[in-house]
Amino acid sequence: MQVIVDFCLVPMGVGVSVSRHVAACQTIIEEAGLVHRMHAYGTNIEGPWDEVFAVVKRCHEAVHAMGAPRINTTLKVGTRTDREQSMDDKVASVEDLLRH
Amino acid sequence: MQVIVDFCLVPMGVGVSVSRHVAACQTIIEEAGLVHRMHAYGTNIEGPWDEVFAVVKRCHEAVHAMGAPRINTTLKVGTRTDREQSMDDKVASVEDLLRH
Amino acid sequence: MQVIVDFCLVPMGVGVSVSRHVAACQTIIEEAGLVHRMHAYGTNIEGPWDEVFAVVKRCHEAVHAMGAPRINTTLKVGTRTDREQSMDDKVASVEDLLRH
Amino acid sequence: MQVIVDFCLVPMGVGVSVSRHVAACQTIIEEAGLVHRMHAYGTNIEGPWDEVFAVVKRCHEAVHAMGAPRINTTLKVGTRTDREQSMDDKVASVEDLLRH
Q1: Which helix H or strand E contains A97, and what residues bound it?
Q2: Counting one residue from C and one from D, how many pairs have CB atoms under 8 Å apart?
Q3: Which of A54, C83, A9 minimizes the C-alpha distance to B54?
Q4: CA B81 to chain centre
Q5: Å from A41 to nearest chain B CA?
């Protein structure tokens, strides 16, 4: 089962700046070899279900290991069985409509 | 790693009523033996990381098997390393403050 | 337009415990006279759109005034035009199915 | 109060394809003159609190008017009082760390 998630991890108890923790997660996602794209409020990740969720778990483990005592993550999780659809397809289908 | 999640699964392409699909997920969560509590916008689930996420995956598989071609799930995922905290603890700590 | 939201406010830069800030929000919601119910990962609130969102804004203002430099809120927002449905109706329709 | 939101509207009861509804929302956001950027799982929008939430409300009204009987939106809402930060700043601060 392929999945597209939107992953937004917020460490708590580490002060106001969390970019160091987010950067560590980006590296973990990158090393997993999954298609991904960061935006201002999270990162879209696309891949097989088990691989994507293994990455999410590794991010929690890594951010705790960096000293964050508490983590609050938000995930959107999309699956479909009617057809294959990539992250790029989703954006493209809306942009197509906007052009016409 | 223990986790408390808030799990809200929305099947798409099945019409306006989704209570049948949500009920199927409740049964799956119940059968997994995890502590859980349903509210008007999802279900809190508490347990070991791998067990909780296995349940989320089973729910996606079951709802697709019921005929939903597309699923859009929202998950909040909380972990902490500073101390143990249950779902009930979280609510109780706020209610304590409100009483004083 | 009636709305049912699930509201989860997370203050950042205030340390690991946020129950004081959540309790302040509960008081604001209570004083607004809106139907609401807290769970382990947020609060369901039901009411007219403008009143509900005014409460969300007041909570952000109050939590900043308590000293939180940064807030990260997650909201689920449900509206429907086909029929009236309360928070209690949503839970009841699933529980009915589970009993049969 | 400036806000950065991540806005993801899901119409229900309209079948599996929702790109027509998402495109209508993009047009509403565009016409409001707010800074925004679409990704595969929503749209980041930046601006004054009241203007941003007025746009969210207009999107719900417009998508209902297009025939969707039910809407399920997810919003992330970020405010901060310690300093100004744009959507671009958020992404840039992580990318800076990744380059070094």
Answers
A1: helix A87-99
A2: 75
A3: A54
A4: 21
A5: 14
Beta strand residue intervals within chain D, DSSP E: 2-12, 35-39, 42-48, 70-80
Task: Name the pTM for this structure.
Answer: 0.96
Residue B98: list chain C partners with CB under 8 A.
Answer: 23, 26-27
Query: For the CA atoms of chain D, what is the radius of gyration?
Result: 15
Contacts of B15 in chain D (CB under 8 A): 13
Q: How far apart are CA A80 and CA B72, in angstroms?
A: 9
Measured distance CA(A75)–CA(B41) in Å, rounded: 15
Burial track B32-49 (b if 16+ CB lie within 10 A, e otherwise): eebebbbbbbbbbbbbeb
- Best CATH choice for the domain B2-99 from the list 3.40.50.720, 3.30.70.930, 3.40.50.300, 2.40.10.120: 3.30.70.930
CB contact at 8 A, A6 and A83: no
Distance CA A11, CA A70 (A): 6
Tell which residue, D94, D96, D93, D87, has the closest CA to residue D42.
D87
Specify whether the CB–CB gap between C10 and C73 falls below 8 A: yes
Q: Any residues with CB less than 8 A from the CB of C89 and at least 6 apart, and which?
A: none
> At residue D23, what are phi and psi to the nearest 5 degrees?
-65, -40
D77–C80 CB contact, under 8 Å: no
- Per-residue pLDDT in tens (0 to 9) along chain D, 100 residues: 999 999 999 999 998 889 999 999 999 999 999 999 999 999 999 999 999 999 999 999 999 999 999 999 999 999 999 999 999 999 999 999 998 7
Quick: pLDDT tens for C78-98: 999 999 999 999 999 999 999
If you search the block for the tokens 């958020």, which residue do you land on? D90
Closest residue in D to A99 (Cα) is D23
Closest CA to D4 of D76, D58, D56, D72: D76
Query: Which positions in chain A touch D78 (Cβ < 8 Å)?
Result: 41
DSSP for residue D50: H
Burial, D2: exposed, middle or buried (Cβ in 10 Å; 0-12, 13-18, 19+)?
middle
Q: Which residues of A are less than 8 Å from C74 in CB distance?
A: 74
- For residue B72, give the nearest of D10, D13, D69 by CB distance: D10
